[in-house]
Amino acid sequence: MKNKKISGAEAVVKSLIHEGVDLIYGYPGGAIMPVYDELYKYQKEINHVLTRHEQGATHAAQGYARVSGKIGVVTATSGPGATNLVTGIADAQIDSTPMLCITGQVASSLLGSDAFQETDIIGISTPVTKWSYQITKAAEIPEIFAKAFYIAKSGRPGPVLIDITKDAQFEMLNSFNYKKCKKIRSYLSVPKTSNKSLKDAAEIINKAKKPFIVWGQGVILGEAEKEFTRFIEKSGIPAAWTILGLSAVPTNHPLNVGMVGMHGNYGPNVLTNECDVLIAIGMRFDDRVTGNLSTYAKQAKIIHFEIDPAEVNKNVVADVAVLGNVKFTLKEILPFINSNKHKKWLDKFKSFYDIEFEKVIDKEYNKTEGGLSMAEVIKSININTNGESILVTDVGQHQMVACRYTKFNLSKSNITSGGLGTMGFALPAALGAKIGDQNREVIAVIGDGGFQMTIQELGTIFQTKASVKIVILNNNFLGMVRQWQQLFFDKRYASTEMVNPDFVAISKGYFIEANKVEKRENLDDAVRKMIKYNGPYLLEVIIEKEENVFPMIPSGSSVSDVRLE
Protein backbone atom coordinates (compact mmCIF):
# COMPACT_ATOMS: atom_id res chain seq x y z
CA MET A 1 0.00 0.00 0.00
CA LYS A 2 2.82 2.37 0.84
CA ASN A 3 4.24 2.24 -2.69
CA LYS A 4 0.96 2.61 -4.55
CA LYS A 5 0.21 6.09 -5.82
CA ILE A 6 -3.20 7.40 -4.84
CA SER A 7 -4.94 10.75 -5.31
CA GLY A 8 -5.57 13.23 -2.53
CA ALA A 9 -9.29 12.51 -2.87
CA GLU A 10 -8.72 8.80 -2.30
CA ALA A 11 -6.45 9.65 0.63
CA VAL A 12 -9.39 11.54 2.17
CA VAL A 13 -11.64 8.48 1.88
CA LYS A 14 -8.95 6.12 3.15
CA SER A 15 -8.31 8.42 6.13
CA LEU A 16 -12.00 8.25 7.03
CA ILE A 17 -11.99 4.47 6.79
CA HIS A 18 -8.91 4.27 9.04
CA GLU A 19 -10.85 6.27 11.64
CA GLY A 20 -13.75 3.83 11.51
CA VAL A 21 -16.11 6.15 9.62
CA ASP A 22 -18.85 4.23 7.83
CA LEU A 23 -21.38 7.04 7.44
CA ILE A 24 -21.27 10.53 5.94
CA TYR A 25 -23.95 13.20 5.58
CA GLY A 26 -23.44 15.61 2.72
CA TYR A 27 -24.23 17.34 -0.53
CA PRO A 28 -21.96 17.14 -3.60
CA GLY A 29 -20.74 19.98 -5.78
CA GLY A 30 -17.93 21.01 -8.10
CA ALA A 31 -15.11 21.65 -5.62
CA ILE A 32 -15.67 18.43 -3.65
CA MET A 33 -16.44 16.24 -6.68
CA PRO A 34 -13.10 14.36 -6.71
CA VAL A 35 -13.83 13.11 -3.17
CA TYR A 36 -17.32 12.06 -4.22
CA ASP A 37 -15.84 10.19 -7.18
CA GLU A 38 -13.74 8.19 -4.74
CA LEU A 39 -16.69 7.66 -2.40
CA TYR A 40 -18.44 6.03 -5.35
CA LYS A 41 -15.68 3.40 -5.37
CA TYR A 42 -15.95 2.80 -1.62
CA GLN A 43 -19.73 2.47 -1.26
CA LYS A 44 -19.37 -0.85 0.57
CA GLU A 45 -17.20 0.79 3.23
CA ILE A 46 -18.91 4.18 3.62
CA ASN A 47 -22.61 4.97 3.35
CA HIS A 48 -23.35 8.51 2.15
CA VAL A 49 -26.66 10.11 3.13
CA LEU A 50 -27.72 12.78 0.67
CA THR A 51 -29.49 15.46 2.69
CA ARG A 52 -31.56 18.13 0.94
CA HIS A 53 -29.55 21.02 2.37
CA GLU A 54 -26.07 21.33 3.87
CA GLN A 55 -27.48 22.66 7.16
CA GLY A 56 -29.57 19.49 7.30
CA ALA A 57 -26.36 17.48 6.93
CA THR A 58 -24.80 19.16 9.97
CA HIS A 59 -27.85 18.65 12.18
CA ALA A 60 -28.15 15.03 11.06
CA ALA A 61 -24.48 14.53 11.95
CA GLN A 62 -25.15 16.13 15.34
CA GLY A 63 -28.06 13.81 16.06
CA TYR A 64 -25.96 10.85 15.00
CA ALA A 65 -23.03 11.92 17.19
CA ARG A 66 -25.15 12.66 20.26
CA VAL A 67 -26.81 9.25 20.16
CA SER A 68 -23.88 7.08 19.05
CA GLY A 69 -21.00 8.85 20.78
CA LYS A 70 -19.12 8.79 17.45
CA ILE A 71 -17.94 11.72 15.35
CA GLY A 72 -20.50 12.99 12.86
CA VAL A 73 -18.93 13.53 9.42
CA VAL A 74 -20.21 16.07 6.89
CA THR A 75 -19.14 16.91 3.34
CA ALA A 76 -19.96 19.97 1.26
CA THR A 77 -18.66 21.89 -1.71
CA SER A 78 -17.13 25.35 -1.67
CA GLY A 79 -18.89 28.72 -1.47
CA PRO A 80 -22.58 28.40 -0.57
CA GLY A 81 -22.19 24.70 0.21
CA ALA A 82 -19.61 25.55 2.86
CA THR A 83 -21.41 28.60 4.25
CA ASN A 84 -24.62 26.57 4.62
CA LEU A 85 -22.75 24.49 7.20
CA VAL A 86 -22.04 27.40 9.51
CA THR A 87 -25.21 27.30 11.62
CA GLY A 88 -24.77 23.59 12.34
CA ILE A 89 -21.08 24.08 13.11
CA ALA A 90 -21.88 26.89 15.55
CA ASP A 91 -24.56 24.73 17.15
CA ALA A 92 -22.11 21.83 17.55
CA GLN A 93 -19.47 24.13 19.01
CA ILE A 94 -21.60 25.58 21.79
CA ASP A 95 -23.17 22.18 22.57
CA SER A 96 -19.84 20.30 22.52
CA THR A 97 -20.75 17.88 19.74
CA PRO A 98 -17.91 16.06 17.94
CA MET A 99 -18.17 16.73 14.21
CA LEU A 100 -15.84 16.77 11.20
CA CYS A 101 -16.81 18.96 8.26
CA ILE A 102 -14.94 18.44 4.99
CA THR A 103 -15.35 21.19 2.42
CA GLY A 104 -14.04 21.40 -1.11
CA GLN A 105 -12.29 24.58 -2.16
CA VAL A 106 -11.31 26.18 -5.48
CA ALA A 107 -7.85 25.35 -6.83
CA SER A 108 -5.00 26.85 -4.82
CA SER A 109 -3.97 28.97 -7.83
CA LEU A 110 -7.36 30.71 -7.63
CA LEU A 111 -7.40 31.42 -3.87
CA GLY A 112 -8.07 35.08 -3.20
CA SER A 113 -9.24 35.79 -6.75
CA ASP A 114 -12.99 35.73 -6.06
CA ALA A 115 -13.31 32.68 -8.27
CA PHE A 116 -16.66 31.02 -8.85
CA GLN A 117 -17.98 29.63 -5.53
CA GLU A 118 -14.90 30.76 -3.64
CA THR A 119 -15.44 31.67 0.00
CA ASP A 120 -12.93 31.91 2.82
CA ILE A 121 -14.60 29.22 4.89
CA ILE A 122 -11.59 28.99 7.22
CA GLY A 123 -11.95 32.65 8.11
CA ILE A 124 -15.71 32.33 8.46
CA SER A 125 -15.69 29.15 10.55
CA THR A 126 -12.70 29.82 12.82
CA PRO A 127 -14.80 31.47 15.60
CA VAL A 128 -17.21 28.50 15.70
CA THR A 129 -14.86 25.54 15.35
CA LYS A 130 -12.55 23.80 17.76
CA TRP A 131 -9.98 23.69 14.97
CA SER A 132 -9.92 24.41 11.25
CA TYR A 133 -7.31 23.87 8.53
CA GLN A 134 -6.95 24.38 4.80
CA ILE A 135 -5.14 21.65 2.85
CA THR A 136 -3.39 22.74 -0.35
CA LYS A 137 -1.08 19.73 -0.77
CA ALA A 138 -2.17 16.10 -0.93
CA ALA A 139 0.76 15.04 1.26
CA GLU A 140 -0.87 16.88 4.20
CA ILE A 141 -4.04 14.82 4.16
CA PRO A 142 -3.18 11.83 6.42
CA GLU A 143 -1.64 13.92 9.20
CA ILE A 144 -4.30 16.64 9.14
CA PHE A 145 -7.17 14.15 9.20
CA ALA A 146 -5.60 12.26 12.10
CA LYS A 147 -5.28 15.53 14.04
CA ALA A 148 -8.83 16.52 13.17
CA PHE A 149 -10.34 13.33 14.54
CA TYR A 150 -8.28 13.56 17.71
CA ILE A 151 -9.21 17.19 18.36
CA ALA A 152 -12.91 16.70 17.59
CA LYS A 153 -13.38 13.81 20.02
CA SER A 154 -10.85 14.40 22.80
CA GLY A 155 -11.42 16.44 25.94
CA ARG A 156 -14.40 18.69 25.50
CA PRO A 157 -15.64 17.60 22.05
CA GLY A 158 -16.42 19.99 19.25
CA PRO A 159 -16.57 20.57 15.50
CA VAL A 160 -13.52 20.62 13.26
CA LEU A 161 -13.41 21.82 9.65
CA ILE A 162 -10.96 20.75 6.92
CA ASP A 163 -11.00 22.72 3.68
CA ILE A 164 -9.30 21.00 0.72
CA THR A 165 -8.42 22.72 -2.53
CA LYS A 166 -9.50 20.96 -5.70
CA ASP A 167 -5.93 20.56 -6.97
CA ALA A 168 -4.94 18.88 -3.68
CA GLN A 169 -7.74 16.38 -4.26
CA PHE A 170 -6.40 15.56 -7.75
CA GLU A 171 -2.73 15.57 -6.75
CA MET A 172 -1.07 12.13 -6.48
CA LEU A 173 0.65 10.89 -3.34
CA ASN A 174 3.63 8.58 -3.78
CA SER A 175 2.49 6.66 -0.72
CA PHE A 176 -0.28 6.65 1.87
CA ASN A 177 0.63 5.94 5.46
CA TYR A 178 -2.02 6.74 8.07
CA LYS A 179 -1.21 6.97 11.77
CA LYS A 180 -3.87 7.84 14.30
CA CYS A 181 -3.08 10.90 16.41
CA LYS A 182 -2.75 10.26 20.14
CA LYS A 183 -1.50 13.63 21.33
CA ILE A 184 -0.66 17.11 20.13
CA ARG A 185 2.17 18.93 21.85
CA SER A 186 0.39 22.25 22.23
CA TYR A 187 -3.01 20.77 23.10
CA LEU A 188 -3.89 19.35 26.51
CA SER A 189 -7.23 17.64 25.97
CA VAL A 190 -7.93 16.76 29.60
CA PRO A 191 -6.44 18.84 32.42
CA LYS A 192 -4.72 17.04 35.28
CA THR A 193 -6.90 16.61 38.35
CA SER A 194 -5.55 18.04 41.59
CA ASN A 195 -5.85 15.72 44.60
CA LYS A 196 -6.14 18.82 46.78
CA SER A 197 -9.19 20.00 44.83
CA LEU A 198 -10.87 16.62 45.38
CA LYS A 199 -10.24 16.72 49.13
CA ASP A 200 -11.25 20.39 49.43
CA ALA A 201 -14.45 19.76 47.50
CA ALA A 202 -15.29 16.71 49.59
CA GLU A 203 -14.75 18.63 52.83
CA ILE A 204 -17.18 21.36 51.76
CA ILE A 205 -19.75 18.81 50.57
CA ASN A 206 -19.56 16.79 53.79
CA LYS A 207 -20.14 19.90 55.92
CA ALA A 208 -23.04 21.18 53.84
CA LYS A 209 -26.53 21.29 55.32
CA LYS A 210 -28.36 22.23 52.13
CA PRO A 211 -26.21 21.08 49.20
CA PHE A 212 -27.56 21.16 45.68
CA ILE A 213 -26.23 19.57 42.46
CA VAL A 214 -26.77 20.93 38.96
CA TRP A 215 -25.51 18.62 36.26
CA GLY A 216 -25.09 19.15 32.54
CA GLN A 217 -24.12 17.34 29.38
CA GLY A 218 -20.59 16.73 30.65
CA VAL A 219 -21.95 13.70 32.52
CA ILE A 220 -23.20 12.19 29.24
CA LEU A 221 -20.20 13.22 27.14
CA GLY A 222 -17.87 11.78 29.77
CA GLU A 223 -19.93 8.56 29.89
CA ALA A 224 -20.07 9.10 33.62
CA GLU A 225 -23.71 8.19 34.26
CA LYS A 226 -22.85 5.34 36.67
CA GLU A 227 -20.25 7.37 38.55
CA PHE A 228 -22.63 10.30 38.84
CA THR A 229 -25.46 8.11 40.11
CA ARG A 230 -23.18 6.59 42.77
CA PHE A 231 -22.11 10.10 43.79
CA ILE A 232 -25.61 11.48 44.30
CA GLU A 233 -26.84 8.32 46.01
CA LYS A 234 -23.97 8.20 48.48
CA SER A 235 -24.12 11.91 49.24
CA GLY A 236 -27.93 12.03 49.25
CA ILE A 237 -27.86 15.40 47.50
CA PRO A 238 -30.83 16.64 45.41
CA ALA A 239 -29.78 17.02 41.78
CA ALA A 240 -31.26 19.03 38.93
CA TRP A 241 -30.40 19.08 35.25
CA THR A 242 -29.75 21.48 32.47
CA ILE A 243 -31.53 20.71 29.21
CA LEU A 244 -28.52 18.95 27.71
CA GLY A 245 -27.89 17.00 30.91
CA LEU A 246 -31.40 15.53 30.77
CA SER A 247 -31.61 11.70 30.62
CA ALA A 248 -28.24 11.04 32.32
CA VAL A 249 -30.30 9.98 35.36
CA PRO A 250 -33.74 8.37 35.02
CA THR A 251 -36.64 10.79 35.43
CA ASN A 252 -38.09 8.84 38.35
CA HIS A 253 -34.87 8.71 40.39
CA PRO A 254 -35.73 9.96 43.90
CA LEU A 255 -32.85 12.46 43.89
CA ASN A 256 -33.72 13.84 40.46
CA VAL A 257 -35.58 17.05 41.36
CA GLY A 258 -36.10 18.41 37.86
CA MET A 259 -34.86 21.12 35.54
CA VAL A 260 -33.16 24.43 36.24
CA GLY A 261 -33.31 27.50 34.07
CA MET A 262 -35.74 29.86 32.38
CA HIS A 263 -38.56 27.30 32.11
CA GLY A 264 -37.23 24.88 34.70
CA ASN A 265 -39.04 23.55 37.74
CA TYR A 266 -40.13 25.82 40.56
CA GLY A 267 -38.17 24.22 43.41
CA PRO A 268 -34.74 23.87 41.76
CA ASN A 269 -34.84 27.49 40.62
CA VAL A 270 -36.01 29.03 43.89
CA LEU A 271 -33.80 26.82 46.07
CA THR A 272 -30.71 27.66 44.04
CA ASN A 273 -30.72 30.84 46.05
CA GLU A 274 -31.18 28.99 49.38
CA CYS A 275 -28.62 26.18 49.13
CA ASP A 276 -25.37 26.52 51.10
CA VAL A 277 -23.28 24.56 48.57
CA LEU A 278 -23.89 24.47 44.83
CA ILE A 279 -22.11 21.65 43.02
CA ALA A 280 -21.96 22.15 39.27
CA ILE A 281 -21.03 19.00 37.37
CA GLY A 282 -20.30 19.11 33.65
CA MET A 283 -22.20 22.34 33.01
CA ARG A 284 -21.09 25.81 32.03
CA PHE A 285 -23.39 28.24 33.91
CA ASP A 286 -25.24 29.37 30.80
CA ASP A 287 -27.30 32.55 31.22
CA ARG A 288 -30.55 30.61 30.72
CA VAL A 289 -29.59 28.59 33.80
CA THR A 290 -28.28 31.39 36.00
CA GLY A 291 -30.62 34.29 35.23
CA ASN A 292 -29.25 37.46 36.77
CA LEU A 293 -25.67 36.62 37.74
CA SER A 294 -25.56 39.32 40.40
CA THR A 295 -28.14 37.38 42.45
CA TYR A 296 -27.23 33.81 41.46
CA ALA A 297 -26.44 31.55 44.44
CA LYS A 298 -24.56 34.32 46.22
CA GLN A 299 -25.13 32.64 49.59
CA ALA A 300 -23.56 29.36 48.47
CA LYS A 301 -20.07 27.98 48.15
CA ILE A 302 -19.52 26.90 44.54
CA ILE A 303 -17.82 23.66 43.51
CA HIS A 304 -17.31 23.25 39.77
CA PHE A 305 -16.48 19.87 38.17
CA GLU A 306 -15.39 20.72 34.63
CA ILE A 307 -13.19 19.38 31.81
CA ASP A 308 -12.67 22.75 30.11
CA PRO A 309 -10.60 25.19 32.19
CA ALA A 310 -11.95 28.07 30.09
CA GLU A 311 -15.41 27.55 31.62
CA VAL A 312 -14.17 27.81 35.22
CA ASN A 313 -14.76 31.26 36.74
CA LYS A 314 -16.09 32.51 33.37
CA ASN A 315 -19.58 33.32 34.62
CA VAL A 316 -19.69 32.07 38.21
CA VAL A 317 -16.60 32.14 40.44
CA ALA A 318 -15.87 28.75 41.99
CA ASP A 319 -14.61 28.25 45.54
CA VAL A 320 -13.18 24.92 44.39
CA ALA A 321 -12.65 23.86 40.79
CA VAL A 322 -12.22 20.15 40.14
CA LEU A 323 -10.73 19.83 36.67
CA GLY A 324 -10.85 16.68 34.58
CA ASN A 325 -13.26 14.25 32.97
CA VAL A 326 -16.15 13.81 35.42
CA LYS A 327 -16.03 10.04 34.93
CA PHE A 328 -12.60 10.16 36.59
CA THR A 329 -13.14 12.99 39.10
CA LEU A 330 -16.43 11.61 40.45
CA LYS A 331 -14.87 8.18 40.88
CA GLU A 332 -11.87 9.69 42.66
CA ILE A 333 -13.87 11.89 45.03
CA LEU A 334 -16.36 9.20 46.04
CA PRO A 335 -14.20 7.63 48.82
CA PHE A 336 -13.92 11.08 50.45
CA ILE A 337 -17.70 11.64 50.47
CA ASN A 338 -19.69 10.79 53.59
CA SER A 339 -22.90 8.80 53.25
CA ASN A 340 -25.81 11.13 53.91
CA LYS A 341 -29.56 11.63 53.34
CA HIS A 342 -30.49 15.34 53.58
CA LYS A 343 -34.13 14.31 53.99
CA LYS A 344 -35.49 17.65 55.26
CA TRP A 345 -33.74 19.49 52.46
CA LEU A 346 -35.03 17.05 49.84
CA ASP A 347 -38.54 17.38 51.28
CA LYS A 348 -38.36 21.11 50.59
CA PHE A 349 -37.94 20.38 46.89
CA LYS A 350 -40.96 18.09 47.10
CA SER A 351 -43.06 20.81 48.74
CA PHE A 352 -42.19 23.22 45.93
CA TYR A 353 -43.09 20.52 43.41
CA ASP A 354 -46.50 20.17 45.04
CA ILE A 355 -47.10 23.90 44.54
CA GLU A 356 -45.97 23.68 40.90
CA PHE A 357 -48.14 20.60 40.35
CA GLU A 358 -51.24 22.38 41.60
CA LYS A 359 -50.67 25.64 39.73
CA VAL A 360 -49.07 24.42 36.50
CA ILE A 361 -48.46 20.70 35.94
CA ASP A 362 -51.89 19.29 36.70
CA LYS A 363 -53.60 21.91 34.54
CA GLU A 364 -51.32 21.11 31.59
CA TYR A 365 -50.58 17.40 31.89
CA ASN A 366 -54.05 16.31 32.99
CA LYS A 367 -56.12 18.82 31.05
CA THR A 368 -59.69 17.70 30.29
CA GLU A 369 -61.36 20.60 28.51
CA GLY A 370 -60.60 23.35 26.02
CA GLY A 371 -57.92 23.02 23.34
CA LEU A 372 -55.26 20.33 23.52
CA SER A 373 -52.17 21.21 25.54
CA MET A 374 -48.61 20.38 24.53
CA ALA A 375 -48.18 18.46 27.79
CA GLU A 376 -51.10 16.18 26.95
CA VAL A 377 -49.35 15.13 23.76
CA ILE A 378 -46.14 14.37 25.66
CA LYS A 379 -48.19 12.40 28.21
CA SER A 380 -49.60 10.24 25.43
CA ILE A 381 -46.12 9.68 24.02
CA ASN A 382 -44.90 8.66 27.50
CA ILE A 383 -47.67 6.10 27.82
CA ASN A 384 -46.84 4.57 24.44
CA THR A 385 -43.04 4.47 24.70
CA ASN A 386 -42.38 3.45 28.35
CA GLY A 387 -39.63 6.06 28.69
CA GLU A 388 -37.28 4.20 26.35
CA SER A 389 -37.52 6.31 23.21
CA ILE A 390 -35.14 9.00 21.97
CA LEU A 391 -36.70 12.46 22.07
CA VAL A 392 -35.53 15.01 19.51
CA THR A 393 -36.88 18.51 19.89
CA ASP A 394 -36.66 21.73 17.96
CA VAL A 395 -36.56 25.13 19.69
CA GLY A 396 -39.40 26.99 21.31
CA GLN A 397 -42.33 26.33 23.61
CA HIS A 398 -42.66 22.68 22.60
CA GLN A 399 -38.99 22.13 23.46
CA MET A 400 -39.47 23.33 27.02
CA VAL A 401 -42.67 21.34 27.51
CA ALA A 402 -41.20 18.17 26.01
CA CYS A 403 -38.09 18.39 28.17
CA ARG A 404 -40.17 19.08 31.28
CA TYR A 405 -42.62 16.21 30.83
CA THR A 406 -40.98 13.42 28.84
CA LYS A 407 -40.09 10.37 30.94
CA PHE A 408 -36.60 8.97 30.45
CA ASN A 409 -35.13 5.67 31.60
CA LEU A 410 -32.04 5.62 29.38
CA SER A 411 -29.16 8.05 28.82
CA LYS A 412 -28.46 9.77 25.48
CA SER A 413 -32.20 10.09 24.99
CA ASN A 414 -32.68 13.85 24.75
CA ILE A 415 -31.38 15.45 21.58
CA THR A 416 -31.95 19.17 21.21
CA SER A 417 -30.26 22.44 20.35
CA GLY A 418 -29.20 23.94 23.66
CA GLY A 419 -26.82 26.87 23.57
CA LEU A 420 -27.47 28.19 20.07
CA GLY A 421 -31.22 27.54 20.05
CA THR A 422 -31.39 26.60 16.38
CA MET A 423 -34.85 26.37 14.89
CA GLY A 424 -34.92 23.71 12.18
CA PHE A 425 -32.64 21.44 14.19
CA ALA A 426 -35.06 18.64 15.03
CA LEU A 427 -36.09 17.07 11.72
CA PRO A 428 -32.59 16.36 10.35
CA ALA A 429 -31.24 15.61 13.85
CA ALA A 430 -33.96 12.99 14.29
CA LEU A 431 -32.87 11.36 11.04
CA GLY A 432 -29.28 11.26 12.32
CA ALA A 433 -30.37 9.93 15.70
CA LYS A 434 -32.35 7.10 14.10
CA ILE A 435 -29.40 6.08 11.95
CA GLY A 436 -27.19 6.33 15.06
CA ASP A 437 -29.40 3.93 17.04
CA GLN A 438 -31.61 1.72 14.89
CA ASN A 439 -32.97 -0.23 17.85
CA ARG A 440 -34.75 2.62 19.60
CA GLU A 441 -37.82 4.62 18.74
CA VAL A 442 -36.94 8.15 17.69
CA ILE A 443 -39.64 10.76 18.15
CA ALA A 444 -39.16 14.28 16.86
CA VAL A 445 -41.36 16.87 18.56
CA ILE A 446 -41.39 20.03 16.48
CA GLY A 447 -43.26 23.33 16.35
CA ASP A 448 -44.97 24.49 13.18
CA GLY A 449 -42.39 27.26 12.79
CA GLY A 450 -39.20 25.24 13.20
CA PHE A 451 -40.56 22.41 11.06
CA GLN A 452 -40.76 24.66 8.03
CA MET A 453 -37.13 25.71 8.34
CA THR A 454 -35.84 22.27 7.34
CA ILE A 455 -39.03 20.69 5.99
CA GLN A 456 -37.15 19.53 2.89
CA GLU A 457 -35.40 16.84 4.95
CA LEU A 458 -38.60 14.84 4.70
CA GLY A 459 -37.09 13.90 1.35
CA THR A 460 -34.01 12.48 3.07
CA ILE A 461 -36.14 10.56 5.53
CA PHE A 462 -38.15 9.10 2.66
CA GLN A 463 -35.05 8.18 0.67
CA THR A 464 -33.29 6.52 3.62
CA LYS A 465 -36.53 4.90 4.91
CA ALA A 466 -35.49 5.97 8.41
CA SER A 467 -38.37 5.14 10.74
CA VAL A 468 -38.59 8.57 12.37
CA LYS A 469 -41.82 9.53 14.11
CA ILE A 470 -42.57 13.23 13.66
CA VAL A 471 -45.00 15.09 15.91
CA ILE A 472 -45.85 18.65 14.88
CA LEU A 473 -47.37 20.69 17.69
CA ASN A 474 -49.24 23.26 15.64
CA ASN A 475 -50.53 26.43 17.28
CA ASN A 476 -50.24 28.61 14.14
CA PHE A 477 -47.84 30.85 16.02
CA LEU A 478 -44.17 31.28 16.67
CA GLY A 479 -45.21 30.33 20.18
CA MET A 480 -42.30 31.37 22.35
CA VAL A 481 -41.94 34.75 20.66
CA ARG A 482 -45.70 35.26 20.92
CA GLN A 483 -45.57 34.42 24.65
CA TRP A 484 -42.99 37.11 25.23
CA GLN A 485 -44.99 39.56 23.15
CA GLN A 486 -48.05 38.78 25.27
CA LEU A 487 -46.29 39.12 28.62
CA PHE A 488 -43.84 41.94 27.93
CA PHE A 489 -45.02 43.76 24.78
CA ASP A 490 -48.74 44.30 25.52
CA LYS A 491 -49.89 41.55 23.15
CA ARG A 492 -48.43 43.24 20.08
CA TYR A 493 -48.09 40.04 18.04
CA ALA A 494 -45.67 41.41 15.50
CA SER A 495 -44.87 38.88 12.77
CA THR A 496 -45.54 35.81 14.91
CA GLU A 497 -48.87 34.50 13.58
CA MET A 498 -48.39 31.84 10.92
CA VAL A 499 -50.57 30.85 8.00
CA ASN A 500 -49.54 27.24 7.64
CA PRO A 501 -49.78 24.76 4.80
CA ASP A 502 -51.36 21.31 4.90
CA PHE A 503 -48.61 19.41 6.69
CA VAL A 504 -50.33 16.06 6.19
CA ALA A 505 -50.53 16.62 2.44
CA ILE A 506 -46.89 17.69 2.29
CA SER A 507 -45.85 14.60 4.22
CA LYS A 508 -47.82 12.35 1.90
CA GLY A 509 -46.26 14.20 -1.01
CA TYR A 510 -42.97 12.80 0.28
CA PHE A 511 -44.63 9.35 0.52
CA ILE A 512 -44.55 9.49 4.33
CA GLU A 513 -47.71 8.32 6.12
CA ALA A 514 -49.42 11.09 8.06
CA ASN A 515 -52.40 11.96 10.23
CA LYS A 516 -53.92 15.00 11.94
CA VAL A 517 -55.50 15.26 15.40
CA GLU A 518 -57.68 18.12 16.62
CA LYS A 519 -59.77 16.50 19.35
CA ARG A 520 -58.68 15.15 22.75
CA GLU A 521 -60.66 11.93 22.37
CA ASN A 522 -58.64 11.00 19.27
CA LEU A 523 -55.17 11.76 20.61
CA ASP A 524 -54.18 8.49 22.30
CA ASP A 525 -55.30 6.33 19.39
CA ALA A 526 -53.43 8.54 16.94
CA VAL A 527 -50.20 8.42 18.97
CA ARG A 528 -50.51 4.66 19.42
CA LYS A 529 -50.98 4.20 15.68
CA MET A 530 -47.94 6.37 14.96
CA ILE A 531 -45.68 4.45 17.35
CA LYS A 532 -46.78 1.06 16.00
CA TYR A 533 -46.38 2.08 12.36
CA ASN A 534 -43.48 0.38 10.60
CA GLY A 535 -41.74 3.28 8.90
CA PRO A 536 -41.57 7.07 9.07
CA TYR A 537 -44.76 8.79 10.18
CA LEU A 538 -45.96 12.36 10.68
CA LEU A 539 -48.63 13.31 13.20
CA GLU A 540 -49.89 16.89 13.26
CA VAL A 541 -51.60 17.89 16.51
CA ILE A 542 -53.58 21.12 16.67
CA ILE A 543 -52.94 22.62 20.10
CA GLU A 544 -54.22 25.55 22.12
CA LYS A 545 -53.33 28.64 20.13
CA GLU A 546 -52.22 30.91 22.98
CA GLU A 547 -50.89 28.43 25.52
CA ASN A 548 -47.97 29.74 27.60
CA VAL A 549 -45.10 27.83 29.16
CA PHE A 550 -44.67 28.17 32.90
CA PRO A 551 -42.75 28.28 35.19
CA MET A 552 -40.85 31.15 33.63
CA ILE A 553 -37.98 33.35 34.70
CA PRO A 554 -38.17 36.65 32.80
CA SER A 555 -34.94 37.52 31.02
CA GLY A 556 -32.51 39.29 33.34
CA SER A 557 -34.41 38.31 36.50
CA SER A 558 -33.14 36.29 39.44
CA VAL A 559 -33.75 32.53 39.35
CA SER A 560 -35.74 32.87 42.56
CA ASP A 561 -38.16 35.28 40.85
CA VAL A 562 -39.70 32.44 38.89
CA ARG A 563 -43.27 32.97 37.70
CA LEU A 564 -45.93 30.26 37.85
CA GLU A 565 -48.47 32.26 35.89
What features would you highlight for this structure?
6-stranded parallel β-sheet; alpha/beta; Rossmann fold; single chain; 565 residues; 37% helix; 23 helices
Structure, described:
By secondary structure, this protein is of the alpha/beta class. The chain contains 23 helices and 20 strands. The strands form 4 sheets. The chain has a 6-stranded parallel beta sheet with strand order 3-2-4-5-7-6, sandwiched between helices. A 6-stranded parallel beta sheet has the order 11-10-9-12-13-14, with helices on both faces. Helix 7 links the parallel strand 6 (131-135) and strand 7 (159-165). Helix 11 packs parallel to helix 14.
Helix/strand/pairing category: alpha/beta
Q: Average pLDDT across residues? A: 96
- Determine the N-to-C terminus distance: 68 Å
**Largest sheet composition:** 6 strands, parallel
Number of domains: 3
Inertia-based shape: globular
Count of DSSP H/I helices: 23
CATH top-level class of the largest domain: Alpha Beta
In terms of DSSP E residues, the strand content is: 15-25%
Helix content: 25-40%
Brief overview:
The protein is α/β, with parallel strands linked by helices. It is built from 23 helices and 20 strands. The longest helix is centred in the middle third of the chain and has 23 residues, at 343-365.
List the helices and strands and how they pair.
Elements: E1 6-7, H1 8-18, E2 23-26, H2 33-41, E3 47-50, H3 54-68, E4 72-76, H4 80-83, H5 86-94, E5 99-105, H6 121-125, E6 131-135, H7 141-153, E7 159-165, H8 166-170, E8 172-173, H9 195-207, E9 211-215, H10 218-221, H11 225-235, E10 239-241, E11 256-259, H12 266-272, E12 277-281, H13 287-290, E13 301-306, E14 320-323, H14 326-333, H15 343-365, H16 374-385, E15 390-393, H17 397-405, E16 414-415, H18 426-436, E17 442-447, H19 448-451, H20 458-464, E18 468-474, H21 479-488, H22 503-509, E19 513-517, H23 523-532, E20 537-542
Helix pairs in contact: 1-2, 1-7, 3-5, 3-18, 11-14, 12-15, 16-17, 16-23
